Structures are given as C-alpha cells and as structure tokens.
Amino acid sequence: MALGRGLSSLIPSKQTITEQVIPSSHREVMDLAVEKIRPNPRQPRSHFALEDLEDLAASVKEHGVLMPLIVTKVRDGYELVAGERRLRASKEAGLKTVPAIVRDATEQQKLEWALIENVQRADLNAVEEALAYKALIEEFNFTQEEAAKRVGKSRSAVANILRLLDLPEEMLIAIRDGRLSKSHARTLLSESDHGKRQALFQTMLSGGVSVREAEARVGIGGKGSKGGKGGGGSKDPNIAAHEKRLREILGTKVAIQEKGGKGRITIEFYSKEELIDLLDKLSE
C-alpha cells in the first residue's frame, strides 16, 4: 500500500496556506480541468522526487485530492499558485479535473505563497529555499527580516540559508541532490581556505567525516585558530566545547583563544543584518 507520506501531504496537520491566505467565507472550490492549469513560473521547487510523486499519485487515485489547489485566472486558462505536487500527482493518477480555488494574485504573492507552502511541508532543499528568499529580497526589495516574517522564520535562519549561495556551484549541486547535508554545507562556509574547503568537501561526499569532525577540522585550520604547545595543532577539548556551544547559540562561526586564563573570542558575521541579529541575541 503506497499511502505513507503521500496521504500525509494531502491532509495537513496545521493551518495550510489555503487557510492562511483565503478567509473561509471567500473559499469557493471549483472543479477545473487539469489540462487548463499551467505550472507556477514562480515555483521555488525545481526537484521532485519520483518515488514521493508515485506515493502521492497512489493516494490521489484512491482518495482524490482532499486539499484544493490555489490558482489564478489567466487568458488561456489558469495558473497554479500553490499545489504543484498535487497537480503533478493528479496528472500521474489520470484525473481529468481537480478541486481548486480561484483568486487574484500578484507576482509577489505567487512567489510568497508557493514558498510558504513548500517551507511548511519541508519540501524545498536548502538551495531552492535560499534562491526563493533571494528572489523575495532582490525582486521585491524585501529585507532579510521582512522575508523571514513572511514565511514564519527567524532572520538568522534566513541569513544562514542565504549564505549557502556563497558556496561554489559544485557544492550547491551536491546539496540539491541530497549528497551534502545543510549542516555539512554550513561547516564548509566556515573554511576560508579554498583548497582546504574543497578537500573537506570531497571527504564529506565519501562519507568519511561527520559534522562534528568537520567542525573540529575547520576550528583547527581556520583563521585565528592556533595549535597547542608542541605544534601538534590540537585544541583544548573544553575550549572546543565552548566554541561549539556558542556556534549553536549564535548560528555563526566562533573562535576562542585562551592562555593563562585570559583570551579573546572572535565572532564572525557576513552582512550588516547578521551583525544586528547577533547584537540582538547578545543583548537578550
């Protein structure tokens, strides 16, 4: 029985994008011909796992589409705003019509709603999510904070995702394809030496290093990190633990240098907005 994740995506457990953007008094569900609905050009998601779509198609074939799509009227039919997976699964299941709600939407709203829906369901990979935030910021003049509020995220979460776009294309492709985790990718960003970053990336792809081990390597090899006595390059495990704790709290690279009970803490940031966010966290 191929219900599993497919059925769960048809029956949301919390307030859906439909419930958020359309008051119940204005929801009129219509049955629209599948062939009359064209994809959303603002859809942030570009990768759809075949197995997941097959599971969803099986659920659609047995139960129908339980949550209507959101579409907007265009000259030759309708354009999808939210519900890309449901539309694709409906086509796969051979449905001729699907339930949908028609409403007006600006280009900005099309992107926002598609992004919110995917973020709610954790359907986007990190690169797709970052590119969607970038579109909101660059095309519609949002600040990182405004973009974060639109999708119910913290500013630091959006800032950290956007930083992934600073990685080379080869690494972004690995994230998109699921060969490199978001945690590993964030660790790569902390390595400023391109040669060491590439070597660490290849080790990650081979499965030869955990996130914790990768963080330790970056902490030893990064700027401002110095080896201990004897030139062995080892770091006091207590200091390393303190660095890890600060990284988790602040969401950025932190280096601690200590000698004789005195020392220095270096906290890195990558934009003015990240600096403001750090100041907010430190003043809490």
From TrEMBL:
One of its GO terms (cellular component) is chromosome. Residues 134-163 form the HTH cro/C1-type domain. Coiled coil: none annotated. Pfam families: HTH_ParB, ParB_C, ParB_N. One of its GO terms (molecular function) is DNA binding. Keywords: Chromosome partition, DNA-binding. CDD domains: SPO0J_N. The keyword DNA-binding applies. GO terms for biological process: chromosome segregation. The keyword Transmembrane does not apply. PANTHER family: CHROMOSOME-PARTITIONING PROTEIN PARB-RELATED. Belongs to the ParB family. This is HTH cro/C1-type domain-containing protein.
